[in-house]
From TrEMBL:
Enzyme Commission identifier(s): 1.1.1.157
Name of the protein in question: 3-hydroxybutyryl-CoA dehydrogenase
Site (described: Important for catalytic activity): H140
GO biological process per UniProt: fatty acid metabolic process
UniProt family annotation: Belongs to the 3-hydroxyacyl-CoA dehydrogenase family.
Origin: domain of life: Bacteria
An example Gene Ontology molecular-function term: NAD+ binding
InterPro entries (UniProt xref): 3-OHacyl-CoA_DH, 3-OHacyl-CoA_DH_CS, 3-OHacyl-CoA_DH_NAD-bd, 3HC_DH_C, 6-PGluconate_DH-like_C_sf, 6PGD_dom2, NAD(P)-bd_dom_sf
Positions with a binding annotation for NAD(+): G10, A11, G12, Q13, M14, G15, D33, E92, K97, S119, N143, K274
Amino acid sequence: MNIQKVMVIGAGQMGSGIAQVHAMAGINVVLHDIKEEYVQKGMTSITKNLARQVEKGRLGETEKLEILERIEGSTDLGNARDVQLVIEAAIENIKVKSSIFAELDQITPPTTILATNTSSLPITEIAASTNRPEKVIGMHFMNPVPVMKLVEIIRGLATGDEVYETIRALSHRLGKTPVEVNDFPGFVSNRILMPMINEAIFTVYEGVAEPEAIDEVMKLGMNHPMGPLTLADFIGLDTCLYIMETLHEGFGDDKYRPCPLLKKYVKAGWLGKKSGRGFYKYI
Ligand code: CAA
């Protein structure tokens, strides 16, 4: 299937990045969120990102305007009725996602592919809330979306081969490298990344070293672009906790137990960069 128009649900950090890369690849985008102010915030972030590309001489001013023209805002899910693909990047909550997918199943033509950018929730369970599980797939982008090359493509139990091929081809069209994985908690990316971040938090909790020292070890010793605690702040500590809980619930193994310090920070509202404080301060 040739994708010409997509709807992206959720205009936050991930959703706006996903909308941007599609518009840059010449695809028309409906950027949807529940409130107009969220849509506007997403549009502002895309505009700023593109302006930076213009400043660096990688994009012309006219090209920037053409990309922005390809993105329309929406607060009405009914606008999904003429898209070939929906990519859902709403909050990480199975009930919310399942209810969005059930609604999309009613609104969109039966041929529309319904993808989710979930970072760890079961694709098969989300698919079960629709009457088209063969058209449901995981399309997991990494943050920051315009920079990171990976798209983790997750097949649910019923995902059709044709749907997988369409999403694989689309990922290439976006300039990304798709990698196919199966539907298990955390998939591959977060099954491996989050226990490392959680272990870094245990290292702070147990007083092994200061956050700066832990990040320095991993940056200079392992060549990671960001230390695990800086990365946790960047991803959002609430998201990190949610993913650890999904892994712990899904596998039951103690090695996935979220660190008590992570839980404490989230309870305190220390969510990382977005709240101004996490393992570091951002004001
Ligand atoms: N949006 C768009 N572009 C951005 C950006 C953003 N938020 N942040 C940085 N960039 C761009 C910069 O403009 C710069 O572009 P050019 O090289 O073209 O000039 C480039 O990225 C490098 O940026 P900086 O020089 O400012 O900083 P850096 O070299 O430290 O790179 C980084 C920043 C790319 C974020 C790098 O630190 C990095 O790769 N960090 C790790 C990111 C990572 O692991 N992401 C995955 C998180 S897990 C996830 O997303 C999945 C999940 O389910 C939780």
